[in-house]
């Protein structure tokens, strides 16, 4: 366009001679969010770290055979408890297996469990929260009562009982952990839905004849995606932490499947002989959880910029 | 206030009832039945039948539950399946250790409050950034693993802390016990440090921006009084509300902390009972855990009502 008129100011602006202004659509919500995210160096670094961790755990088979020239299951009993060396970057464990290789493979298990935990927590928490926030009244009261009961059970105790009674494989274990945590998701979704459902455009939609389902799916749910994404991030990290705690006790992922948690399981016995066996899996958990937390924090600030302390 | 208390107690009773139903259902739903979980292939089906009758497992489930409930209300949680001692007795032996650890952790955790206050007052300074960094790292690191790493350092280099237990054999003095309590209490308090300092910092920043603080300063009040009399009191109010959650986290986390430090408490007992499939003990511990969490939340709510004069309970 060759000129811009601002009637409220009573002016018409023209570009300098030789300059042409282009009409460009203003950036949308997602674009603005990404821009804000990009400007936050800490969050970008966290994103990079998380992607790196995902990449090397997913590529574990390739890395382990071609770069490290070893494999997580080969026992070398004459060479057990070897400290870190150029041949075994993180040393060997009590059976002579390469620690780094095991850490990488265990990462696949732990990360997958984290994802399933987040999925289950969202699958249960989002519909429940939506129902509580949208319908209100007795439905809300009933749901709150259930959440109250469940939140008053110490999570670890319940997980111990579940783990012992059902002896779950990693995926079912992740489902159990998600079952422990959906209440938090439901509460957050309920809060957001409560504020959204009272808005005028929802009333307008209802007046125009939209069914409840349509309103929920077409109007409320899309506005929840930012909250849900951040919740998912935190749930993945918490899931990894809980699973590793449970496996450390011996009640989570069972050997021979390795996870970062159960690699720490017998480590108290080797505290003096092989401290790297304690350090390596724990450091892996720490770095992964750190990157996810920073990432989720950054996402939350990018979606909803407020005055940051 | 009394009506509020009575209402809360009734509410808590219902919550406990719900917890007990959930507990009971989970364990009776075990695939294969309760007795066959012991997995000894040499047990003949006839013996299994007899054992099941003995344990009353052939009654309809609601009857079983009511029987259990009737006993539980009288604090009779049955006998341990392992050594036939009353469950209540076994728990009574281990509970003091956990209470000791939890109390120490709660008190230590309160240090997070002055930390958060300092961070807020010196916002942007080195202290603030260090505290915030600590918060970020503290959230991401598994606290029990951090305890393990400190034990690694203690074992391999300078013996900073003992490697476990409540006291050393042959020396049960106060100093020795405190030295054994130090590391577990600090690790358990980390959750509190992080939570309180974060909350306190953000609350204080909010309060410091309020008009009445400006007024107090304009009136000429010395800064010390402004902080003590106005800012701190108002900032503390929301912090009190998370005290209940801290207790819940301690109960849950006690399982991990006690196992790491060989602390003879109920958390470790739960893990051992789990491995031994000692169901009466597990059920009782679960109920105990729920009671502790409910108590924590109730105390936090009461404290909130006491600290904030705008809140009235009736």
Describe the structure.
The complex is a heterodimer of chains A (about 300) and B (about 325). In chain A, a hairpin with a 4-residue loop joins strand 1 and strand 2. In chain A, helix 4 packs parallel to helix 7. The longest helix of chain A has about 40 residues. Chain A is mainly α and about 300 residues long. Chain A contains eleven helices and two strands; from the N terminus they run E-E-H-H-H-H-H-H-H-H-H-H-H. Chain A has a two-stranded antiparallel ribbon. Chain B is mostly helical. Chain B contains 13 helices and no strands. In chain B, helix 4 runs parallel beside helix 13 and helix 5 runs parallel beside helix 8. Chain B is globular. The model of chain B has no long low-confidence stretch (mean pLDDT about 85).
List keywords for this structure.
heterodimer, A: 309 residues, mainly alpha, two-stranded antiparallel sheet, 11 helices, 2% strand, flat, B: 314 residues, 74% helix, 0% strand
Summarize this, please?
Chain A is an all-alpha fold and 309 residues long. In chain A, 67% of the residues lie in helices and 2% in strands. In chain A, a hairpin with a 4-residue loop joins β1 and β2.
State Rg of chain A.
25 Å
Q: Quaternary status of these chains?
A: heterodimer
Query: Could you estimate the helical fraction of the residues of chain A in percent?
Result: 55-70%
Give the helix tally of chain B.
13
Question: What is the mean predicted local confidence, pLDDT of chain A?
Answer: 87
What proportion strand of chain A? under 5%
**Largest interface summary:** A-B, 41 and 53 residues
Distance between the termini of chain B: 5 Å
Beta fraction of the residues of chain B? under 5%
Helix content of chain B: over 70%
Taken from the alpha-carbon principal axes, the silhouette of chain B is globular
Q: Let me know the largest β-sheet of chain A.
A: 2 strands, antiparallel
Low-confidence stretches of chain B: none
Distance between the termini of chain A: 42 Å
Order of strands in the sheet with most strands of chain A? 1-2
Largest sheet of chain B: none
Kindly report the average pLDDT value of chain B.
84
């Amino acid at each position: 366009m060759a000129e811009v008129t601002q009637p409220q100011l009573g002016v018409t602006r023209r570009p300098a001679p030789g300059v042409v202004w282009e009409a460009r659509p203003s950036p949308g919500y997602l674009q603005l969010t990404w821009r804000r995210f990009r400007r936050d160096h800490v969050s970008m670094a966290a994103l990079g770290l998380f992607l790196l961790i995902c990449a090397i755990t997913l590529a574990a088979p390739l890395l382990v055979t071609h770069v490290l020239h070893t494999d997580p299951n080969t026992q070398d009993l004459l060479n057990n408890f070897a400290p870190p060396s150029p041949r075994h970057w993180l040393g060997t464990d009590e059976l002579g297996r390469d620690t780094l290789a095991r850490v990488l493979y265990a990462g696949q298990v732990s990360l997958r469990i984290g994802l399933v935990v987040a999925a289950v927590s969202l699958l249960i928490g989002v519909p429940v929260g939506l129902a509580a926030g949208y319908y209100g009244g007795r439905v809300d009261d009933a749901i709150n009562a259930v959440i109250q009961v469940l939140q008053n059970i110490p999570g670890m105790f319940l997980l111990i009982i579940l783990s012992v009674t059902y002896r779950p494989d990693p995926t079912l274990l992740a489902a159990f952990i998600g079952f422990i945590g959906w209440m938090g998701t439901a509460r957050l979704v309920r809060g957001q839905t409560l504020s959204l459902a009272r808005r005028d455009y929802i009333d307008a939609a209802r007046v125009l004849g939209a069914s409840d389902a349509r309103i929920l799916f077409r109007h409320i749910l899309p506005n929840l995606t930012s909250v849900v994404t951040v919740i998912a991030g935190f749930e993945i990290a918490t899931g990894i932490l809980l699973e590793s705690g449970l496996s450390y006790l011996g009640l989570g992922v069972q050997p021979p499947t390795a996870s970062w948690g159960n690699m720490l399981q017998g480590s108290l016995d080797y505290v003096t002989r092989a401290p790297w066996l304690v350090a390596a899996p724990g450091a892996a958990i720490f770095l992964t959880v750190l990157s996810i937390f920073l990432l989720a924090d950054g996402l939350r600030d990018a979606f909803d910029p407020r005055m940051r302390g | 206030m009394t009506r509020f208390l009575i209402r809360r107690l009734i509410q808590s009773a219902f919550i406990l009832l719900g917890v007990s139903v959930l507990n009971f259902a989970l364990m009776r739903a075990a695939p294969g039945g309760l007795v066959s979980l012991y997995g000894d292939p040499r047990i003949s089906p006839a013996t299994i039948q007899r054992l099941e009758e003995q344990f009353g497992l052939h009654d309809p489930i609601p009857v079983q539950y009511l029987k259990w409930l009737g006993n539980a209300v009288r604090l009779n949680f049955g006998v341990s399946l392992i050594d036939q001692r009353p469950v209540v007795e076994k728990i009574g032996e281990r509970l003091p250790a956990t209470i000791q650890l939890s109390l120490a952790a709660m008190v230590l955790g309160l240090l997070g409050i002055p930390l958060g206050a300092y961070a807020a007052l010196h916002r942007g300074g080195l202290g603030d950034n260090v505290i915030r960094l600590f918060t970020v790292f503290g959230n991401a690191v598994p606290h029990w693993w951090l305890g393990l790493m400190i034990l690694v350092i203690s074992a391999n280099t300078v013996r900073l802390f003992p490697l476990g237990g409540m006291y050393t054999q042959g020396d049960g003095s106060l100093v020795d016990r405190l030295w054994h309590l130090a590391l577990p209490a600090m690790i358990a308090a980390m959750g509190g440090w992080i939570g309180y300092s974060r909350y306190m910092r953000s609350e204080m920043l909010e309060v410091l921006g309020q008009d009445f603080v400006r007024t107090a300063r304009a009136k000429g009040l010395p800064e010390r009084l402004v902080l003590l009399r106005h800012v701190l009191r108002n900032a503390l109010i929301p912090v009190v509300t998370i005290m209940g959650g801290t207790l819940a986290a301690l109960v849950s986390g006690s399982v991990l902390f006690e196992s790491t430090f060989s602390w003879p408490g109920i958390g470790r007992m739960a893990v051992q009972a789990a491995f031994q499939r000692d169901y009466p003990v597990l059920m009782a511990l679960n109920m105990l855990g729920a009671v502790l969490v409910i108590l924590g939340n109730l105390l936090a709510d009461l404290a909130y009502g006491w600290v904030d004069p705008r809140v009235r309970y009736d």
